[in-house]
């Protein structure tokens, strides 16, 4: 509600605006006056906008006695139209406290509501609070996607509540993401994979400002590092084998002095107890001669054979 009106407040201290202050236990509006009391009175309320009004409630206040009407009715209209008058509702007497009267209105369209009250004989009326309940449009909080595609193809396994996806594509180019939100009034912002090092995002902003972000990681098939193939065919040379030196042993002299050979069957020693590379052909000869794989210790210079 944006405003309230009444003709006969007790005083400015008890104006009708006090009936919409959110307090249900204070002395709000009062029509008390000395002498003859009003037989009827009306409180009118302007709604902020056209609303489907479901019901209205009126909380009265005990001011030294039964200071509430004997009956009331709630009326409504659209600005400039005729007032729709409801049925009278009796307000019961009670020995303690003050009554709360709720009047169903059935989701009527209105932007003005008023409460018409018929007083008890020679008794003033005090209203604590008037509440008007209704339905009106509100901003949607839905920030879900209805559809997500990569280069026009639906993402496999897509679900609105799942926000992380991995998609493998062929070729070397980056695909394009596209998306449709559930709420057509939601905003959709897309960062394509080529701008995110292969990771694309789709952010949906609902009309009420709520956001959800979906992430799509693109992997391109066949572009990762591949193992080098082993040589094959006539004349191919297998890769050399590494043998670690751990104990003193001798290798049959199959290719000349160990420290000086450079041919395909040579040994290349790197230290007194270091690792050496052994060409497979020479290693095979050593195995054939000794029946085992031998480990080699380099002999210090100047030592006799």
Automatic annotation (TrEMBL):
The chain crosses the membrane at residues 276-296. Residues 191-264 are annotated as: Disordered. Residues 191-208, 233-264 have a biased composition (Low complexity). Gene3D superfamilies: Galactose-binding domain-like. Keywords: Membrane, Transmembrane, Transmembrane helix. The keyword Membrane applies. This is F5/8 type C domain-containing protein.
């Amino acid at each position: 509600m944006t405003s309230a009106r009444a003709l006969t407040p007790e005083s400015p201290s008890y104006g009708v605006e006090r009936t919409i202050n959110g307090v249900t236990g204070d002395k709000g509006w009062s029509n008390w006056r000395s002498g003859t009391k009003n037989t009827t009175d009306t409180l009118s309320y302007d709604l902020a906008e056209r609303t489907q009004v479901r019901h209205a409630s009126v909380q009265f206040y005990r001011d030294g006695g039964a200071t509430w009407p004997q009956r009331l009715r709630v009326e409504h209209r659209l600005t400039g139209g005729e007032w729709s008058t409801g049925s009278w509702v009796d307000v019961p007497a009670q020995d303690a406290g003050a009554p709360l009267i709720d009047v169903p209105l059935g989701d009527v369209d209105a932007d003005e509501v008023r409460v018409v009250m018929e007083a008890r004989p020679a008794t003033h009326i005090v209203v604590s609070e008037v509440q008007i309940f209704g339905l009106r449009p509100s901003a949607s909080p839905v920030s879900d996607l209805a559809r997500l595609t990569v280069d026009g193809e639906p993402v496999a396994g897509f679900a609105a509540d799942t926000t992380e996806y991995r998609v493998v594509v062929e070729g070397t180019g980056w695909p394009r993401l596209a998306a449709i939100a559930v709420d057509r009034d939601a905003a959709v912002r897309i960062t394509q994979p080529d701008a995110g090092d292969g990771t694309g995002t789709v952010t949906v902003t609902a009309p009420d400002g709520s956001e959800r972000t979906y992430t799509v990681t693109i992997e391109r098939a066949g572009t990762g590092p591949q193992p080098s193939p082993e040589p094959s065919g006539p004349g191919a040379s297998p890769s050399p084998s590494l043998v670690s030196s751990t104990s003193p042993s001798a290798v049959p002299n199959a290719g000349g002095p160990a420290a000086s050979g450079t041919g395909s069957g040579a040994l290349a020693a790197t230290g007194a107890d270091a690792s050496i590379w052994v060409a497979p052909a020479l290693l095979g000869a050593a195995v054939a001669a000794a029946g085992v794989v031998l480990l080699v210790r380099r002999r210090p210079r100047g030592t006799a054979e």
